[in-house]
TrEMBL record:
The keyword Iron-sulfur does not apply. GO terms for cellular component: cytosol; signal recognition particle, endoplasmic reticulum targeting. Keywords: Cytoplasm, Ribonucleoprotein, RNA-binding, Signal recognition particle. One of its GO terms (biological process) is SRP-dependent cotranslational protein targeting to membrane. The lineage of its organism: Eukaryota, Metazoa, Ecdysozoa, Nematoda, Chromadorea. Residues 5-73 form the SRP9 domain. It comes from the Eukaryota. This is Signal recognition particle 9 kDa protein. It comes from Pristionchus fissidentatus.
Length: 76
């Protein structure tokens, strides 16, 4: 499993993956205290998209992406 290095590519891929198979997608966030990094993962058990960051500004981007995905989940 590889990590995306560009947030915009990751966000677009997450939205695309969710649009393809909304019933099987899972969105997981975790924080590793050892290296103070936030790990974001979206998977449908076939494709796994991951992004790791230690930047505070990426938390705001995560909030926006989570809101977008949640709106799509509720409207389906």
């Amino acid at each position: 499993m590889t990590y995306f290095t560009n947030w915009d590519e990751f966000a677009k891929s997450v939205e695309r993956l969710y649009a393809e198979n909304p019933e099987k997608c899972r969105f997981v966030t975790s924080f590793r205290h050892s290296d103070k990094s936030l790990i974001i993962k979206m998977t449908d058990d076939v494709v796994c998209l991951q992004y790791r960051t230690d930047q505070l500004q990426d938390v705001k981007k995560l909030e926006k992406l989570t809101g977008t995905v949640m709106k799509k989940m509720v409207s389906a």
